[in-house]
Write a structure and sequence with these properties.
This protein is mostly helical. Helix content is 64%, strand content 0%. Helix 2 packs antiparallel against helix 3 and helix 3 crosses helix 4.
């Protein structure tokens, strides 16, 4: 399996297992919660290091957004066009 993303930039880490099955599973995961959970489990089994790092990043992002949501909104939160 060739890591095509490393040819673009060495700073880009491998983000997926590039196989026909993984591609199909990721397509299905976009369609339903069941397949999304199965997709996560797939990475839990086949790329434990990636899975664990993803959990850390997701937790950090949830905490960041929770803090952001608790801040008072300036200007009513509306975007002027």
């Amino acid at each position: 399996m060739k890591e095509k993303y490393y040819t673009v930039a060495k700073s880009i880490s491998r983000w997926k297992i590039d196989t026909p099955f993984e591609n199909w599973l990721s397509y299905k995961a976009d369609k339903s919660e069941f397949w999304k959970r199965l997709y996560v489990y797939y990475y839990k089994v086949f790329d434990r290091k990636y899975y664990k790092k993803g959990l850390e990043l997701a937790k950090r992002e949830v905490q960041r957004q929770a803090r952001k949501a608790s801040l008072p909104q300036m200007g009513g939160g509306k975007i002027a066009c």
